UniProtKB/TrEMBL annotation:
PANTHER family, per database record: RE64534P
NCBIfam families: urea_degr_1 (TIGR03424)
Organism listed in the record: Cellulomonas septica
Domain DUF1989: 20-186
Protein name, per record: Urea carboxylase-associated family protein
Length: 224
């Protein structure tokens, strides 16, 4: 079943530090300071957002899918999920989620995987690995720094026998996921360009990336 957006602005209250629309197929990155919140808004609906996160001061400490899955005993991410690094440390916590479920297993598309899965005619298509390398390179990251990534909004159900597949999404326009940084982190995103499977509804669309500094209780009281 496809989720339905509420129509309200999903961005949490606070000082807006960055508010940018990432075009379809494009990369994006930012350093998010400890305590600040990154909100990813699915503007068009069913747009997969490939996501990597690193300690901003030591990028050898980076998102670990095995540690994250083991700690929460689930392959899906939603409100309350903690993204952990390769030493089991906390990187970011999902503090709000209006979609309900996000993928940790599907990985990132690449020119090589496109060729293997969809045929040699797809070899020249731009892919998420190329986005990660281009954007990560701006922060000194290379191919050795790429690990299994998160796919926000991508629908990868797991059958009882362990089989999985990328199927039609459950997101909708305006749905959002918000993550609080537990320390200073570097976030690198590929707004997935894939057109050969349903992860984007075969039509990549823009997403909105908003970084906010939460209001303190006394600040919220003054604005009433």
């Amino acid at each position: 079943m496809t989720a339905t957006a509420t129509g309200a602005d999903p961005v949490p209250a606070g000082e807006v530090l960055r508010d940018e629309v990432v075009p379809a197929r494009a990369p994006w990155s930012a350093v998010v300071s400890a305590g600040d919140v990154l909100t990813i808004v699915d503007l068009g609906g069913n747009q997969a957002v490939d996501f990597l996160v690193y300690d901003a001061h030591d990028t050898s400490l980076r998102y670990s899918a095995p540690d994250t899955i083991q700690a929460q005993d689930s392959v899906f991410l939603t409100t309350g999920s903690v993204l952990r690094d390769c030493e089991h440390g906390e990187l970011m916590t999902v503090v709000a989620d209006t979609c309900g479920r996000h993928d940790t297993l599907g990985g990132a598309c690449s020119q090589e995987s496109n060729t293997l899965r969809y045929g040699h005619h797809t070899r020249g298509q731009h892919a998420c690995v190329e986005n990660f390398l281009a954007e990560g390179g701006r922060h000194g990251l290379g191919k050795r720094d790429l690990v299994s990534n998160i796919n926000w909004y991508m629908n990868v159900p797991v059958d009882p026998d362990g089989a999985l597949g990328i199927v039609d999404g459950i997101s909708a326009p305006g749905l959002a996921v918000s993550l609080r940084a537990e320390r200073d982190v570097l976030v690198v995103v590929s707004n997935c360009p894939q057109v050969n499977n349903p992860c984007n509804g075969f039509d990549p669309t823009p997403v909105r990336m908003v970084v906010t500094h939460p209001s303190r209780p006394d600040e919220q009281e003054q604005t009433r």
